[in-house]
């Protein structure tokens, strides 16, 4: 049984997992959908009630029936490397590739349709509530009046993007930012704005969930630091235990969202409460593994691999 | 309980359903996501474990808690009508709107994540097989050799697009086309190509499924006509009964795909077999209703409406 990894050529996180799969002797195929068609080729036949599909890349041929699992890491856009790329060629190639993969009986980390919904931050907040996490009061609004009321009620608030940083080259950093008292909110009418109560935090917590295995890491915050992703705090990520209550909430969240992998970000306050900030279904784990020594790549490889008796 | 309809301004099919909802006295809100923010506004609050959302459009305000159902008809791209549209504004608005809607407890026709997978034609074929439909032998390939073998085996074949017609203005028609004997398939390597055994057909059949209610219509084919969507056959759509075997397969397909609405296209051959061609989760029904008198708009309105005792 073979593992299929969808990712671009330059991906050290994928390399970490591939090394672990090699250690286990598990066959794998690495494919960048951008190389299809061209470097890679595919064929899917639907005949007499049966389905046969295969994929060829780097001189290797893998049949859909021989696939154990698919890891969607950082796949390129289908047909992006074609000699004459076009929107239509991308659409046709995407349908051909993903349609064939959806037809296979495999486990996904994570299924693209599940991932699309899981990326939606407002939905993350309601799911986090339902799963039992502490969630900072949040509003997403295009009503300046609602933004003003929220600021008046919670006083110390931050603003962040709902969908991530703006696209474009060079990339624009968009850290979570505290909102100064007396801010004019009339611009809120021009675009949905996400405001959240500011959580004075002692530490950032990153919890990486791989199936049912959970890896939590903690980094002490620099005084007054708002967004742990930007700036050096002088502290390193250290492993820590996952409280039972959090473990239960993580498993509920993963199950409700249909996720096999996710990276959760929390803010730890002075009273040891872990406040849910977001859940990134495709979050990086390499930097955590390097600093903490937690065997996350090994856990990903184990989840993707066939059960031990099959792989021997 | 209110019905939310996501569609663009010009949509006569939506108008047909809206008339039926008015007849039933069911409150509804019609929103084009392209008008948000601007003509329309939204606000979602996630506070103390509760979620409150509301949407304002055309001077009406609807709370997420009061929503019964959401019909995704032909929604415009979020923020497309903004004074300064941008990819980022579209992404932010999409997250804010759909994130809020995903957080509501409603029935969807169809949920956008379900719809995305259901559009994938190769996946439709394997689902059709699993559901028990007759499916013409089909291959989707980038291997010229495989295309040649398929043509040699099935002789009379057609070529069609996997993803629909190429984007662009003016639109390009791309009818299903018979492949001439001796065709050179070397170009298959440049883009995935969908080849299918040609089914000599007596009639086209369109089956519209609205929840568990099925409406089948039949149109006699013109002699030698390949693609029923193009050209006048001189025949009209006539209603016909749905065989039990087909009804079971449709319900299995809808259930496996998670769909509440779908339009199935079949080719009826000389032996009365209905060959599955495709399933369009957002397929039109207005032209069928106008020619056959089948109450499809009424069925959609009924599915979207609260149960009778609630709406009184």
Describe it:
Chains A, B: This is ATP-grasp ribosomal peptide maturase. The structure is a homodimer of 312-residue chains. Chain A is an alpha+beta fold. The first copy, chain A, has 3 domains: 2-109 and 304-311, no CATH class; 137-197, Dna Ligase, domain 1; 200-281, 2-Layer Sandwich (D-amino Acid Aminotransferase, Chain A, domain 1). The first copy, chain A, contains 9 helices and 16 strands. Chain A has helices spanning 12-24, 87-103, 112-118, 121-131, 144-154, 244-257, 286-292, 296-304, 308-311; strands at 2-6, 28-31, 41-47, 50-57, 60-63, 67-72, 107-109, 138-141, 157-160, 177-178, 193-197, 203-210, 213-220, 238-240, 261-268, 274-280. In chain A, the strands form 4 sheets. Chain A has a 5-stranded antiparallel sheet with strand order 14-13-12-15-16. In chain A, helix 1 crosses helix 8 (296-304) and helix 4 packs across helix 6 (244-257). The longest helix of chain A has 17 residues, at 87-103. Chain A is globular, with a radius of gyration of 22 Å. Chain A starts with a strand and ends with a helix. The mean pLDDT of chain A is 92.
- Structural class computed from helices and strand pairing of chain A: alpha+beta
Strand content of chain A: 25-35%
The oligomeric state of the chains shown is homodimer
Order of helices and strands of chain A: EHEEEEEHEHHEHEEEEEEHEEHHH
The N- and C-terminal alpha carbons of chain A lie at a distance of 11 Å
Mind describing the biggest β-sheet of chain A? 5 strands, antiparallel
Q: In what order do the strands lie side by side in the largest sheet of chain A? A: 14-13-12-15-16
Organism (chains A, B): Streptomyces pratisoli
Protein name (chains A, B): ATP-grasp ribosomal peptide maturase
